[in-house]
Design brief:
- There is one protein chain.
- The protein has 469 residues and is an alpha/beta fold.
- 42% of the residues lie in helices and 19% in strands.
- α9 links the parallel β4 and β5.
């Protein structure tokens, strides 16, 4: 009888897993693991297994974008006359996978460190006259978070429309007492994917909004790696994370706004996206800027993996250099192949990661890839001063990426992420300069490092968990 029950269970769970059409390795892993967990495996897979999410999108927002897509190639050629065919192909790939055209920025400022970032954010919020929109993975009710919340409450009382969206797991310390003054002042607050059972019987555990977006009056926008927490402000904590953020002005802010508005509508659990009545103020027509910039977003509701593909395509397009900074280096096979191929064909490939990240298992998994990279000619550096949290890519002299996405499976496939791609010398040069400065606090990792047996075994075991990290 036991074997009959187990066979029926294995058949049911096998069909369920196969219909998800996940990567073959992940599918086989789930099949083997669940087969060894009679009956209980159903619950494990139900709550923690891969899920498909569907989101309806605001048709008017998408139509506004579609009307401008045809301008992408022309704008890129205008702002970056030296753009290679492969560079244009990267822009086209992003347009087709994320549905965002190449836009432009009148101003583009790299903000190094949480202190500069928070000062700039507070100044933008205090200057807002129509609206302030925020979306964050981590928003802590600490000194930094309280200062920003106080500024938001003051703006809401002044009649500015404030909408605040935070991830329910990343910002789990937030309680109603913290955001109640904002709501009482006329602002709006929402959690993204609350862990409780809501409109869906199956709670969403994995799919988090890892985005960091702030938009003021539709004219000023911010994105990058900096969360709202004391852990990123060296003025509060000596060991604060080392990170970078981006401040944007100009038409490109429309596309950061679009990402926020669609997430906001989705988070409010509306069956159909509601078009904001003040859309013209939220997405104003702004004069073209001199910097070509493209927003790229991705998430589990889009299987085209826009950010993953953008990274791989950009690396494959490199002729001279690929400088990658990431706090969590757990590459996919495609991303690892792109890096090693670039190094083998003579491109200057340099990887900068923290010596110790805030995740022990991720640190071990990352180190398991070092020898292969170094053997192919890449240079690997470990940042030693503090926890490195920057997420940037510099390719040749005219492409750069900065955003919320780590170079790992979770950011590429599970989280909602957003990045800005700069075409031209401005962002590329700023990030390259910062990369060189960061190397002053890093050590070069040598090939075939001396490791004891058990640490080496631990790195290898951690690597097996790469698709789950």
């Amino acid at each position: 009888m036991f074997w009959l029950i187990w066979s029926v269970y294995a058949l049911v769970i096998g069909v369920w897993v196969l219909l998800q059409r996940s990567a073959p390795v992940a599918t086989l892993g789930w099949l083997l693991a669940l087969a060894a967990l009679p009956v209980g495996g159903l619950g494990v897979y139900y709550f923690f297994g891969p899920q498909r999410l569907k989101r309806l999108r605001n048709k008017r927002l998408r139509s506004r974008k579609s009307s401008r897509l045809r301008m992408s190639a022309a704008r890129l050629r205008e702002h970056v006359p030296a753009a290679t065919v492969r560079l244009q192909q990267v822009a086209r790939l992003v347009s087709r996978t994320a549905d965002f055209p190449v836009s432009s920025a009148e101003r583009m400022d790299l903000l190094v460190g949480g202190d500069r970032t928070f000062d700039s954010i507070l100044a933008a919020v205090r200057a807002a006259r129509h609206h302030v929109h925020l979306e964050y993975y981590i928003f802590e009710p600490d000194r930094t978070g309280t200062a920003l919340m106080d500024a938001l409450v003051e703006r809401a009382r002044a009649g500015v429309k404030v909408r605040m969206l935070v991830d329910s797991m990343g910002s789990k310390k937030i309680r109603r007492k913290f955001y109640a003054p904002l709501v009482e002042a006329g602002g709006e607050f929402a959690f993204f994917h609350p862990s409780k059972i809501g409109r869906r019987l199956r709670p969403v555990i994995n799919f988090r909004t890892h985005r960091k977006i702030l938009v003021c009056d539709g004219k000023v926008g911010f994105t990058g790696g900096v969360n709202i927490t004391d852990e990123e402000d060296k003025r509060v904590m000596d060991c604060a994370y080392h990170d970078v953020h981006l401040r944007l002005e100009g038409p490109v802010v429309n596309w950061l706004q679009t990402v926020f508005l669609e997430d906001w509508s989705y988070a409010l659990e509306r069956s159909h996206p509601v078009e904001p009545p003040d859309l013209d103020e939220l997405l104003p027509d702004l004069a073209e800027g001199q910097h070509a910039v493209q927003i790229v977003s991705s998430g589990p509701d889009n299987r085209l993996e826009a950010i993953h593909r953008a990274y791989v395509a950009a690396i494959n397009a490199a002729d001279a250099r690929v400088w990658l900074t990431t706090p969590y280096f757990v590459p996919t096979e495609a991303a690892m192949t792109a890096l090693t191929n670039a190094a083998l064909r003579g491109v200057d490939v340099q990887l900068l990661v923290p010596e110790k990240s805030d995740s022990f298992i991720v640190t071990m998994a990352a180190r398991s890839y070092f020898d292969e990279l170094i053997a192919c000619g890449a240079k690997v550096y470990e940042y030693r001063a503090r926890m490195l949290h920057s997420k940037t890519l510099v390719v040749d002299d005219c492409l750069a990426i900065i955003g919320t996405a780590n170079f790992d499976h979770r950011s590429f496939f599970l989280n909602y992420e957003v990045c800005a791609i700069g075409y031209g010398a401005k962002l590329n040069g700023d990030l390259a300069t910062q990369f060189v400065l960061d190397l002053e606090n890093a050590r070069l990792v040598h090939y075939e490092r001396k490791q004891r047996f058990f640490p080496r075994l631990g790195d290898s075991v951690a690597r097996l968990c790469s698709p789950l990290l």
